[in-house]
């Protein structure tokens, strides 16, 4: 699943050549037998590392663009970035629901693609010389051993209990004006973001929707 800014598709020469990777923000939870989520800090750290490493590796292997980590920020810059990450989360939800043009009532949004974060991240362009930023957000709900046992018991009674779910959104944002250029989405009941190879496969698949020649 992906969404593209038509302006980028119509002029592939404007694709960013240098992109900075903002620290991936994924929240990882363990689901108890009763379905209560508990946030797991150690799992979260592993998942974020996996997403960072996979994003860098797969961009290099696919020769999409030069991708590098974001610079260390001072407190004021970090506050600005955090605010824009929060805004990006809302924008990503809107793009997923409306911007892909899969619903008849919103088909026009595939071509009237006016999603933006505004120019507030332009300081990153000035600091790094990068054209754009790659933002990766997500959530991963992973079943505990007790929930897996409850799942098996439920099957015997004809009850299907969901074991878990992950959702990851990756997007390229123009640092000059904040316009969203591309977003790729993945929703899975089997992906475990703690698994490095699985996350490599995820990023490889997401990057395949990036427009233009490699």
Description:
The protein is of the alpha/beta class and 214 residues long. It has a single domain (2-207), classed as Double Stranded RNA Binding Domain, CATH 3.30.160. The chain is built from 6 helices and 8 strands. The protein has helices spanning 6-10, 41-62, 75-99, 122-128, 145-156, 196-207; strands spanning 2-4, 18-21, 25-31, 37-39, 66-69, 132-143, 165-174, 180-188. Strands 1, 2, 3, 4, 5, 6, 7 and 8 form an 8-stranded mixed beta sheet that branches. Strand 7 (165-174) and strand 8 (180-188) form a beta hairpin. It is globular, with a radius of gyration of 18 Å. The chain starts with a strand and ends in a 7-residue tail after the last helix. Residues 145-161 have low confidence and may be disordered.
Going by CATH, the architecture would be: 2-Layer Sandwich
Give start-end ranges of low-pLDDT stretches: 145-161
**Mean pLDDT, nearest integer?**
85
Biggest sheet features: 8 strands, mixed
Short recap of the structure:
The protein is an alpha/beta fold and 214 residues long. Helix content is 39%, strand content 24%.
Tag the structure with descriptive keywords.
6 helices; Double Stranded RNA Binding Domain; alpha/beta; eight-stranded mixed β-sheet; 214 residues
Task: Annotate the secondary structure layout.
Blueprint: E1 2-4, H1 6-10, E2 18-21, E3 25-31, E4 37-39, H2 41-62, E5 66-69, H3 75-99, H4 122-128, E6 132-143, H5 145-156, E7 165-174, E8 180-188, H6 196-207
Parallel strand pairs: 2-5, 2-6, 3-6
Antiparallel strand pairs: 1-8, 3-4, 6-7, 7-8
Helix pairs in contact: 2-6
């Amino acid at each position: 699943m992906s969404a593209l800014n038509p302006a980028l598709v119509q002029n592939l020469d404007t694709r960013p050549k240098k992109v900075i990777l903002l620290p991936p923000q994924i929240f990882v939870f363990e689901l108890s037998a009763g379905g209560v989520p508990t946030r797991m800090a150690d799992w979260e750290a592993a998942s974020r590392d996996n997403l960072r490493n996979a994003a860098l590796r797969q961009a290099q292997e696919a020769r999409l663009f030069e991708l590098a980590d974001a610079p260390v920020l001072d407190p004021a810059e970090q506050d600005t970035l955090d605010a824009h990450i929060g805004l990006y989360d809302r924008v990503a939800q809107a793009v997923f629901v409306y911007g892909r043009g899969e619903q008849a009532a919103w088909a026009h949004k595939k071509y009237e693609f006016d999603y933006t974060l505004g120019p507030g991240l332009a300081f990153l362009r000035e600091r790094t010389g990068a054209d754009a930023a790659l933002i990766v957000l997500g959530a991963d709900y992973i079943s505990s051993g007790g929930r897996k046992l409850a799942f098996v018991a439920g099957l015997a009674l004809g009850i299907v209990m969901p074991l878990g779910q992950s959702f990851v959104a990756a997007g390229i944002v123009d640092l000059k004006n904040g316009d969203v250029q591309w977003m790729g989405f993945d929703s899975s009941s089997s992906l475990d973001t703690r698994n490095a190879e699985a996350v490599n496969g995820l990023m490889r698949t997401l990057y395949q929707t990036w427009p233009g020649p490699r």
